[in-house]
Specification:
Chain A has 333 residues and is α/β, with parallel strands linked by helices. Chain A has twelve helices and twelve strands. Classes of the chains: A alpha/beta (333), B mainly alpha (306), C mainly alpha (342).
Chain lengths: 333, 306, 342
């Protein structure tokens, strides 16, 4: 492989939450990489560890109770997990920035929009910036996300704004630092569909313009299909499949991905999809071997015993499933 | 309808009941795990249990039970702590240890009686005001509550205790008069909020009576905060009781109130330090015990993280 | 405009509460068997004088009417004669109030600085030894009655170490500063008498600290738990994730939302401090209104009792309003909701 070093490379990340009766094995060997300029999707059911993975990347998980028990996260080859606070702060915002899932929770209720946005700007401009410059930059940031009357908005408190406005402000804050990699955690899910659509379009245009790399977290396959080049599928804290978007949708490899495709409601289809039988596993005592095996229609003996490594279907299509193990010799479905 | 209520699980079929029992067992197990994994809570529990036992069995576990009353033995007066008198003796020769243990009796009585007088009416008023949120019932009850809350509690308790005859019973009465609004306010807030939650609304739609909604749907959900507050309040009531005794408006000598003993002993400081020190420590220990216990309960009932 | 409407509504509310309080006090002052007219006239006055006085004092009227007269007098500052000092209660209170107020003021400053400071330190070093130390100390602070602290400080600072004077507001023989505000430390500074200021300051440290201990501990606990709670919020994670320095996140964006519960409790504690001061005033022989009140209670001096409670009630209510305003200032959610008229 003579591709350049990826922008972000997560290798075998393991994470647990200490709780009553033991530790939740939230992430169990997550791999992911993003190249410069790439738009990567990350899909999976609610609670499968998408947000935890991304918060771990920026080291903003509450620790304790969270605890990283293994693996590495490299940004441009540098190990984030070993960074000293000063270097880390350089990476945050400028290197990688993040749009949080719920814009209402992500804005401090007792500070104005301007105070928060300007604090972010000031952290990256350092001492040399004067008040006027920062204010101007803040105004520009709001204008970029197509917010009318930015002057008034800067002095408003989050409670005074609509959900759509808060979402746009979160986007503005995350992009104001001109990051190389933007993590967008389910942007717009809290909004109604038309506004969500507008917000996603806006986000898409902004990152296209700047050629920002993106990790888009979503549980909506439709959104991921439209906006990304490559997709990772997560199930219960493990990465089960990665493939170019088009390939994933035409030839889903992992049984979980296949079922996920089927449950997407189609307007033209008749009735409701059968859904995926079974339920999300218990993280306290996760299934041995492949975490999906209790729900998998193709489960084999080995799936109960061993954790499947990633098998390559193609150079750019990996599936963590023994169905694709040449040694098993059984034909892929 | 009740399946929506977080404090009640689904009713009827046997399978459900089995599930309910199992989940309740699991909840207790989880609660005990959380509680017992905080050493401070366990210390609180043990402290409170020990003090309650000591107080109940005071006549049997103390070396000189007769010293709890008007007893004098000037030959043995002013003895520093020794094996015979672990906390020493006071100026008329009474065993301070015995009197301290008996002092727990008055403190605990004060706490229990005040809470027994205060919690039922306070909670009932809070339920009513919260349920009839926005009506005249709410306004009337909460304005009266405001008035009582607007008075510095200790001073009015003192005033009432002084206008009545100063003794233990009247001091309990006085403190009770000042204490009920806190429960009203607590339950009012909870009720007003729960009033609009789905489980109440759905019970209402299904034609449940007001009585049912108030006492079977809402009240059970208020139990844990009330319980937590009671445990913390035990400590505060005991503290206030000791303060009243300290200025002579509570337990009257020769009965051994902890506050009374500190007040009397303070006159002989610093030479006869043990007369005031041990009752003072006893107050600290009993209040600390109830606080630790109450905090443990509060952590328990607070929303689970993650 | 918003704030003005807020204050007006709060003031109306307070007047209602104050009226209610006055009724409670009136009822208390009339519970006791005894004849206020006889008390006022003196034990040796002839019966006809007492009868006249009773008529003058409206004591033959029904209770509600009596209440109206009593209230009218109270509003005009006439709280009746003290049975003990034989002086107008209002005059006594006016003279003694500044002493208690000064004590409470110093205690309040200690609560705010030490309480919030310790809490913030504790939250910053959560679950490390410093945090555990602060938590143990604050438990001790909360559960130890103020009279025990008072005795302890008196013994340790006053007698054993001899660092601080023990009793009263000033060393005996030292002339109090001319009365401007009634607060010795302030008046001494205003009149440029540094040695009096220094002496008064030394006198106030132990009683103020004894009074503040419980609240310091309480503030520390509340601040710590509020900060620890908010530390896990997404808005803190979001600022960190965007590279805002840890120092700024902690001292600005975490501190302000965490101060809201602290400020509300702090204000109430400050008001309560004035009336809880009696234990400390008794022990330190502090000539304040609380000690006056407790002596009145022990001697059943009804007018004095009513006067003291009324004054302390007013202080309590004013403090409540100030707290509400402070919280509204800190928390835009409350401010904006109020403005919309809820």
């Amino acid at each position: 492989m003579d591709r350049p070093t990826p922008l972000l490379q997560i290798h075998d990340l393991r994470l647990q939450y200490r709780v009553y009766g033991g530790a939740l094995q939230v992430l169990d060997g997550v791999h992911l990489h993003v190249h410069v300029g790439e738009k990567v999707g990350l899909v999976g059911e609610t609670g499968c560890g998408k947000t935890s993975t991304m918060k771990a990347v920026l080291r903003v998980l509450p620790m304790p109770p969270a605890q990283i028990t293994g693996g590495s996260i490299r940004f441009k080859g540098q190990e984030i997990l070993a960074m000293d606070p000063r270097t880390l702060q350089q990476v945050r915002g400028r290197g990688i920035s993040m749009i949080f899932q719920d814009p209402t929770a992500a804005l401090n209720p007792v500070f104005t929009v301007g105070q928060q946005l300007e604090a972010v700007l000031r952290s990256h401009w350092g001492r040399r910036a004067d008040r006027g410059e920062i204010r101007a930059a803040a105004l520009a940031a709001l204008e970029e996300v197509a917010l009318a009357d930015p002057d008034r908005l800067l002095d408003a408190y989050p409670v005074q704004l609509s959900g759509g406005m808060r979402q746009r402000i979160c986007i503005a804050m995350a992009l104001a630092t001109k990051p190389e990699l933007l993590i967008a955690d389910e942007p717009g899910t809290a909004l109604d569909v038309t506004i969500q659509d507008q917000v996603l379009r806006l986000l898409h245009n902004l990152v296209e313009e700047r050629n920002t790399s993106v990790i888009l977290i979503s549980h909506s396959l439709g959104i991921v299909r439209q906006l990304t080049d490559r997709v990772y599928v997560m199930y219960a804290g493990t990465m089960v499949e990665s493939a170019p978007t088009r390939k994933l949708f035409t030839h889903p490899g992992h049984p979980y991905t296949q079922q996920l495709m089927e449950v997407v409601p189609r307007l033209s289809g008749g009735g409701i999809a059968p859904g995926i039988p079974g339920r999300i596993p218990d993280y306290l005592d996760p299934p041995t071997g492949c975490r999906f095996h209790p729900r998998c229609p193709h489960a084999m003996e080995i799936c109960r015993r061993e954790k499947p490594p990633a098998f390559s279907l193609d150079q750019d299509h990996q599936v963590a499933c023994f169905l694709y193990d040449p040694a098993q010799g059984s034909p892929a479905p | 309808m009740s399946s929506l209520n977080p404090s009640r699980t689904a009713a009827s079929p046997r399978a459900w009941r089995e599930l309910e029992r199992a989940s309740r067992r699991e909840n207790w197990g989880r609660a005990w795990y959380k509680f017992s994994h905080n050493p401070l809570s366990v210390v609180g529990l043990i402290t409170v249990a020990t003090i309650v036992l000591l107080a109940l069995l005071a006549p049997y576990v103390t070396p000189y039970p007769e010293h709890a009353g008007p007893f004098t033995d000037f030959q043995n007066a002013k003895q520093p702590p020794s094996l015979r008198h672990p906390f020493g003796t006071d100026v008329v020769g009474r065993d301070v240890f015995t009197r301290t243990v008996f002092g727990f009796r008055f403190s605990l009585t004060m706490g229990v009686v005040v809470l027994a007088l205060v919690v039922p009416p306070g909670v009932l008023l809070g339920l009513l005001a919260g349920y009839y949120h926005g009506t005249w019932v709410d306004t009337l009850i909460m304005r009266v509550t405001d008035i009582f809350l607007a008075v510095p509690p200790l001073i009015l308790a003192l005033a009432i205790a002084s206008v009545l005859e100063p003794n233990l019973f009247n001091s309990m009465l006085a403190v009770s008069l000042m204490w009920w609004p806190w429960y009203t306010r607590l339950v009012y807030g909870l009720t007003a909020q729960m009033r609009n939650e789905y489980f109440t609304v759905s019970a209402e739609i299904m034609g449940a009576s007001r009585w049912h909604i108030l006492f079977r749907e809402i009240l059970p959900n208020c139990v844990s905060p009330i319980f937590t507050k009671m445990s913390l309040d035990m400590g505060w009531v005991i503290l206030i009781g000791a303060s009243l005794s300290f200025v002579g408006l509570g337990v009257q000598p020769p009965k051994p109130g902890l506050g009374t003993m500190v007040a009397n002993g303070a006159r002989y400081l610093p030479d006869l330090w043990w007369i005031a020190l041990f009752p003072a420590l006893a107050i600290v220990v009993i209040v600390l015990g109830f606080n630790l216990l109450g905090d443990g309960l509060r952590d328990l009932f607070a929303a689970e993280e993650i | 405009m918003q704030i003005a409407a807020f204050i007006v509504r709060r003031a109306v509310h307070s007047v209602v509460v104050l009226l209610g309080l006055s009724m409670v006090i009136f009822v208390i002052s009339r519970i006791l068997p005894g004849d206020p007219a006889r008390v006022a006239a003196g034990a040796r006055a002839p019966d006809w004088v007492v009868d006249n006085l009773r008529e003058q004092m409206h004591l033959n009227d029904p209770l509600p009417v009596q209440y109206v007269y009593w209230l009218r007098d109270a509003v005009q500052g006439d709280l009746g004669l003290s049975l003990v000092t034989r002086r107008n209660v209002a005059q006594d209170i006016l003279e003694l109030f500044p002493a208690t107020f000064e004590l409470a003021l110093y205690a309040g400053v200690m609560m705010a600085i030490l309480g919030v400071g310790l809490g913030a330190v504790s939250a910053r070093h959560k679950d490390r030894w410093l945090d555990n130390l602060v938590r143990v100390l604050s438990y001790m602070g909360v559960v130890t009655p103020s009279f025990v602290w008072a005795i302890l400080f008196l013994l340790v600072f006053g007698f054993t170490l001899g660092w601080l004077p023990t009793l009263g507001r000033l060393t005996e023989g030292l002339q109090p500063p001319p009365r401007i505000t009634g607060l010795y430390t302030v008046d001494a500074l205003l009149t440029g008498r540094v040695e009096v200021f220094w002496d008064a300051l030394q006198h106030i440290v132990s009683p103020a600290l004894a009074l503040a201990m419980g609240s310091i501990a309480q503030q520390a606990r509340i601040t710590r738990s509020a900060m620890a709670d908010n530390l896990g919020k997404d808005y803190i994670a979001a600022l960190r994730a965007l590279g805002v320095p840890e120092r700024v996140v902690m001292n600005r964006f975490l501190l302000k939302p965490s101060l809201i519960p602290t400020v509300s409790i702090l204000g109430l504690d400050f008001a309560a401090t004035m009336s809880n001061a009696f234990l400390v005033e008794l022990i330190f022989n502090w000539p304040g209104i609380s000690r006056y009140g407790i002596n009145a209670m022990l001697r059943k001096d009804l007018n004095a009792i009513a006067g003291v409670i009324l004054v302390l009630g007013v202080v309590f209510i004013v403090a409540n309003i100030l707290v509400d305003m402070a919280v509204a200032y800190l928390d835009p959610r409350i401010r904006l909701r109020t403005a919309r008229g809820r």
